[in-house]
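Quick question, first post here. What does this chain look like in 3D?
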Amino acid sequence: MVFGDWRLVQGQQTSEDRCCRRAALRSVMDACWKMGYISHEQLQLFHSETKAKAVSRSKYDTGRLVTVEEFQMLLDVCDETPLGIRDAAILSLMYYAGLRRSEVASLTIEQYDRKARLLVDVVGKGDKTRPVPIPVNARLAARLNAWIALRGDAPGPLFCSIRRGGHLTGKGITSQAVYNVVTERAQAAGLDSDIAAHDFRRSFITNALEVSGNPVLVADIAGHSDPATTARYDRSGLASYREFIEKL
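> Answer (accepted):
Ran it through. Tokens below.
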């Protein structure tokens, strides 16, 4: 095995291809060592050369904030049709409550306690559940209530798919459907295509940290077991840098 050739081939493959081929080659080399075709030192050298390298990421290299102006533009393209009312509620839930798109898709109407303005037992990563408060500013509550007035109080998924003509199916939506809501509404509003569903969560966490200054509290609301994870979502520093540059 020529390790220089390995690196050349590795550079011509996709990330998924590299993972599969790396695993296959490591198995082959392990077998070669057991059969006595290569020494233990050669085996160690090969494993060292083909070991997946950890990628160092900058704090600000992924994702971005959804600004207040951008969020309003997204809401402006949600009309008073059933689809528009539903999408406005979904977007507001991500922006004001910081839910992941999978969490939005899995919600049932039984989880929404209107009197307490609380989402009960939201299922996050690792099937961990947490309560999520609905902001007192009522922007989110108003849009959720408008959707429920249209949906009805029947048990089942909080958000359902909608057929042409505004017919509610009663069938729940998928995480991909939430992704599509963000993408299609961003396109309709003429916004950059780089807005992702998870950027709403980044925006919520950034805003919550700025208001509360309490990463432990925000981590609890966001469903993070480690406040350090929550801190990585904070984009307030980057916003400050940009504001400073604009003033130069």
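Residues 1-16, 52-58 have pLDDT under 50 and may be disordered.
The first strand starts at residue 112 and ends at 113.
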